[in-house]
Amino acid sequence: MSNPKISVILAIYNVQDYLDECLKSLLNQTMFDDIEVLMVDDGSSDYSKDLVDEYAEKYENFHAFHKENEGPGIARNYGIHRAKGEYIHFLDSDDYITPDAYENLYKIAKQTDCDFVVGRALRFGKYNVWKDLLFNQSFEGINEDVQFKNLKDYPSLVWDTAIWNKLYKKEFFDKHNLEFPNEFIYYEDLIFAFQAYSLAESVYLSNDVFYYWRVRNRTVSITHQEENIKNYKDRLKISNMILDFARDHGMTDEGVFNALYSKWLNHDLKMFLKKIHLYSKEYHSEVVTNTNLILKDIPDELINRQNSYRKVLYQMVKNNDIDSLLEFARLENELMRYPKIPENLDDKYKALFDFDYDGSIEEFIVEKTSIDNGDNNLYINFKEGMFYITDNHPHEITATLIDEDENEYPLKLKKLNVSKFKEDIFNEHQITIPLDFLRDKNHLKVKVKYSCDRFTKEEYLKNDGRHSLRYADFDLDIGIGIDRVLFIDRRVHNSNMVKINNVVFDEMNFNLEGESKKPIENLVMENVVSFEKNTYPVKYDGNKFHLTIPYWDLIESPIKKWELKPEDLSNSISISQEFEFIQKTDKTVFKNSRKKILIENDVFNTFSMTNRMLDTAEKYDLKQKAKKYNMHKIANKLGLKKLLKKLLN
């Protein structure tokens, strides 16, 4: 491809479990033919390097590059130097982008002619999607699409340290020679993002979500190993690089600097100082000294706006009080849940505590604890509270039920006398919802309001588990939406039973065969988190029917968990048995769940299984022990029969 519209750059290092899913989100792009994908393998030792070559061989606009391991920043620079696109996007190799991401971003970029377009992002794990603290802070008060010049217009964007939620004009990079630090350093994206915002003459911020940022096992992600001393040293080094850049470029805006300092106090410095006791003793003095070099530039008034824990933390650093710091720094979680001033603290530190203020700047926590289906009512018990504020703090709690049209209905609320929580911050209440009220409404959520003399806060009730409750003539499904918001949906009973008898996979489609007492027209596949729906027509052959679900429909969402159900929710559906389909990098399962059919597509790395088989081959005489380790069955299931035969010969 000689003139691609967008160059997509991926720095890849040992992500075999997630890389295929990420690359498939690129294959699914609506403007796939107008992008080039530069896959820079940064010295991977796992199957990632082979998967990169497979994609490059199969798709002409995917290009594989292999280099020694030097870190993601240098790998991205490698891609920048080879990019031919009019625009550049950085995609982390374990993340996911929506199918229309590049089409929409490119359209905005061309219409506005800005230096880069910023989109919204959400975090995702195996079962849910939620908003991230960094983005909540970044876009605070920005509720619509806006075009602006740079950080002076919206200083809170210093919190937006991501590089992958932006589509950059290639000319912008060339004009300012914008690159990542040419060294193996963690948090290289922080300085890059700050430089981009600072140098820009025009930026467009879209409220649309196009990027999903995966939460991985903390032991896997390098930059999430806070106890690693190199992480902290590099964080401080990057912070100083940001200050040097700002001063060298004549930045004097007080709002930008204050926002930057507040981010460091709230997040960057605290994140590592709280774990100082995990660092080797030889580093304690160095950590305190280097942190002080940052703190000396931060106005005292900004430190005084911090909560009690952080004020004490930074005062101990300023006092070079390492012994007290080692004891106190680890107490953050305890103070949040049991707000009591530690007795062994020096009086000068005790004077800095104000738990009421601390609670006022925290989020309101509202979580379902249990559900009971009475004869005439639905009862939902929930806990409420805020970190740093004890449960006996005077306040009022009210609750409302909200329907699909955002109409609100007051709910009956009762405070429960006996608290079962270990933490000192929670109270428990019970909501009563008459069943008659639920008969003609669907997709309901509960909003809870906290009021006291100093502040008022509202939050939707959160849910940690899906339930189905059966009544005489209908069922209630208690679901979980984005940000774990609890939803209530009603399903009327019907004598018609839909049954799926068989599922066959042909690498592109899942072909389902079934039957029903009464004819049906469609089945609906609904995502369990986003509630996005796909409808599939049913074709009959006598009293049997069949339908086809494309494989790509399952993977077009970051949460690949769907419920298959009749379009008319009064019909019941089940599957005759659990069906499982394994490919090289993923596994799809069809099974019964909550009177519907749950379809789950998940990471399943056959290459890790292959490596384990090879390791076993080295350790044991497989001709004698293959039966014991059940390897024939494993090999057949994974399509690795030839490999096992080779190992046994």
Sequence-ordered SSE layout with sheet pairings:
Elements: E1 6-12, H1 19-27, E2 35-42, H2 48-58, E3 62-67, H3 72-82, E4 87-90, E5 96-97, H4 101-112, E6 116-124, E7 129-130, H5 133-138, E8 146-148, E9 166-169, H6 170-176, H7 188-199, E10 203-214, H8 229-248, H9 254-273, H10 284-295, H11 300-304, H12 308-318, H13 322-328, H14 332-337, H15 347-350, H16 355-360, E11 365-373, E12 377-385, E13 396-402, E14 408-410, E15 412-415, E16 427-434, H17 435-438, E17 445-451, E18 456-460, E19 467-470, E20 474-480, E21 486-492, E22 497-505, E23 509-516, E24 522-527, E25 533-537, E26 539-541, E27 544-550, H18 551-554, E28 561-566, E29 572-575, E30 579-582, E31 586-593, E32 596-603, H19 606-619, H20 622-625, H21 631-638, H22 641-648
Parallel strand pairs: 1-2, 1-4, 2-3, 6-10, 22-29
Antiparallel strand pairs: 4-9, 5-10, 6-7, 6-9, 8-10, 11-12, 12-16, 13-14, 13-17, 15-16, 17-18, 19-20, 20-21, 22-23, 23-27, 24-25, 24-28, 26-27, 28-32, 30-31, 31-32
